[in-house]
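Collaborator request, handled under Task 6.
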Amino acid sequence: MASGSKNDVVNRLSNVKIADADGDGDEEPPQNMLPSNQQARQSGHDEEMAHSIDPMPSSSAIENLPTHNTGGRLHNWQATKTTVKERLSFLFNNEILSDVHFIVGKDANQQVIPAHKFVLSVGSAVFDAMFNGVLATKSDEVELPDVEPAAFLHLLKFLYSDEVRIGPESVMTTLYTAKKYAVAALEEHCVDFLKSNLGTDNAFLLLTQARLFDEPQLAALCLEMIDKNTADALNAEGFTDIDQDTLNAVLERDTLRIREAKIFSAVLRWSEAECIRRQLPVTPTNQRTVLGRAFHAIRFPLMSVEEFAMGPAQSGLLDDREIVQVFLYFTVNPKPNVGFLDTPRCCMTGKELTVNRFSQTESRWGYSGTTDRIRFTVDQRIFVVGFGLYGSYFGPSEYEVHLQIIHLATKKVCGSNTTTFCCDGTDDTFRAMFKEPVEILPNTSYIASAKLKGTDSYYGSKGVRRATVDCNNGEKVVFQFSYAAGNNNGTSVEDGQIPAIIFYI
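Structure tokens returned to the collaborator:
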């Protein structure tokens, strides 16, 4: 989304609906902002929306809400309205006693809506200034070309009756209108509606809106959703519609749970869409131009050599000097300055958790270039950030270790890192971390692998096949451990190395 005024952004995104799912499959679904599990809950015209909010009628239905805009006067209508709320509600969108008319919208969508200055002034400081302030308007007609008629009717309905009539089609434009006229209570209803419908498929679009309308709580929830479900959020259709400032804000985060190569692929898709929005040919030069500083937020040094060679190096977005520098970064020490961050995206949100396999420690365990391996599965998705390993039996020492997590069925290396760790000679475990979180899918077999180079160490015994970790949110993660066939340096379920797996949910 090219940067522009707030009105331009609202007008563009007012066409992006948080869509209901009719379930009939006859029509192609619109680009929507609802998570799929919410679409099902919103099907059917007789169901109420979340938080007891009435379903959003269509634009034509709003225009045909029961009114008495006949220009005539009804005799003794007050007698049938027994409360103040009923009497004020009756005056909503009604010519009776109206003293101002709003010309709302523009072109074919324009609508003339009657109103009452007193009611509006009581409910909104902006309307109070408009009608009663030092620079109060003298005209009986007020033009509002930047406001959608449906959204303005929702605002008036709230001011006249406290009723909230927002839905998937109108929540964005209603939020804009409530902000414009400083009706904080209606703003809160809109934001609550968006929060309740936040999902991976609309997190980026709602983040754009939250930043646009200065809603920090909603923005924080969107960022948390993106952090925990980065791959799904980047693959959502709405990702390519975000503005450049939002793209920059997300790429600068250290908490994205995805490999950098996939971030690069998503950024390429965004740059193609931005070129089309700016009516530029989709060329590598133009893609890099429209990305601006977002291009330098991509952390190429976090990729593997193969990922960089197969993707960015052949994309045409980097020049020859940059390509050579990144390849040098992969192959030489000390590492040269390549102009791109190499800070791992491992600063995970939430509480760090650890599963421990052994109940007892023994000595001693030797190493001769062989890899310790253990097979494991979990019952829900987690992100592994490192292993806990035993250290030297002989006192303080330093180890070099090559870590891997391997998908058993495909033999694909899901994550790897060569690093070092120091130990103090005790039988505690010591942390060896991956550069990036490694996504572990539920009910899928993986191999945890650690190839250590150093002196003999402690090892664990009396291991368990099943371990349950209690999380701080009341959830539980269940690990199942089993023997990893092949060369494993003797590590098994019962005893050996890799006593702990460090992870986040």
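The cover message to the collaborator said: "The first strand starts at residue 100 and ends at 104. DSSP finds 18 helices and 15 strands in the chain. Please let us know whether this matches your experimental observations."
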